[in-house]
Specification:
InterPro entries: P-loop_NTPase. The chain is of the alpha/beta class. It has 10 helices and 8 strands. The protein is globular.
Length: about 260
């Protein structure tokens, strides 16, 4: 492993799916668990409007019945309270999920962002497949790297244009320049679309293109245990993590 791959994740990483079922949640967990396995303090945050399944998919150690809405309801959060509201993975990631009793608000994410910053904790936010919601303003106000996940299918590649346009319309060229397009292969028979053609097409528009191979453990639909992922999958999450760090550091070269 190179020194670049040992870099910690940035304070905030935003994971966005190009469409439903793109693999944003599994990528969120993969990046967070990669950082946690290196000893980093990291939280995977459910930043979808009404709550997704990041805890159900990833909490293989502890599944909390509490949610982000309850955690931030009273304002600044004490350390012991914060830990008590989190689910956990066996790799050491804490997960803040939503219980879904109300739609996400910008006030919640202002409070959460300040709480994580005060603790020096990195966060990987699962945004689902929507970027323009008003409640995301606290997350979009900083130059966080964006990991845009697209499944390796021709129809999904065609829909990628809309996702990139959404980033461009919301954040302009600087937003696209800090976007790492990540192709997730969900087909056990192999790569069905030529990723090199996508790299050629997107050249100069985004920071870069990375890939995540098919993984039998992820394909089973059970709770994810990071230690059971294949070595190629873990190496892929290392590359995407390093790319996110390179974006923050302003390094234009691929890692």
């Amino acid at each position: 492993m190179t020194d670049q791959l040992l870099h910690a994740l940035p304070v905030s990483t935003l994971v966005l799916g190009a469409c439903g079922g793109a693999g944003a949640t599994t990528t969120t967990l993969g990046l967070a668990n990669t950082a946690a396995a290196r000893g980093g303090a990291v939280v995977a945050v459910d930043a979808t409007p009404a709550g997704g399944d990041v805890a159900e998919r990833g909490a293989d150690a502890v599944l909390s019945v509490s949610g982000l809405e309850q955690l931030v309801a009273a304002g600044p959060v004490a350390d012991d309270v914060f830990d008590g509201y989190c689910s956990r993975t066996s790799a050491g990631t804490r997960i803040l999920s939503r219980i879904g009793n109300r739609t996400a608000s910008d006030g919640e994410f202002h409070t959460l962002t300040e709480s994580l910053r005060a603790r020096g904790v990195s966060a990987v936010h699962d945004l689902g497949h929507r970027l323009r919601a008003a409640y995301l303003a606290p997350l979009l106000a900083t130059p966080s790297p964006i990991v845009l996940v697209v499944p390796c299918r021709a129809d999904a590649f065609n829909r990628l244009r809309s996702a990139l346009q959404s980033i461009g319309n919301t954040l302009g060229e600087p937003g696209l320049a800090r976007t790492v397009v990540t192709v997730s292969n969900q087909d056990a028979t192999g790569w069905q679309v030529d990723v090199d053609l996508l790299r050629e097409y997107l050249g100069g528009q985004v920071w870069g293109v990375e890939t995540i191979p098919y993984d039998e453990h992820l394909g089973m639909g059970i709770v994810i245990d990071h230690s059971r992922l294949g070595p190629d999958t873990r190496a892929a999450y290392d590359r995407v993590s390093a790319a996110a760090s390179a974006v923050v550091e302003g390094r234009p070269e691929r890692v």
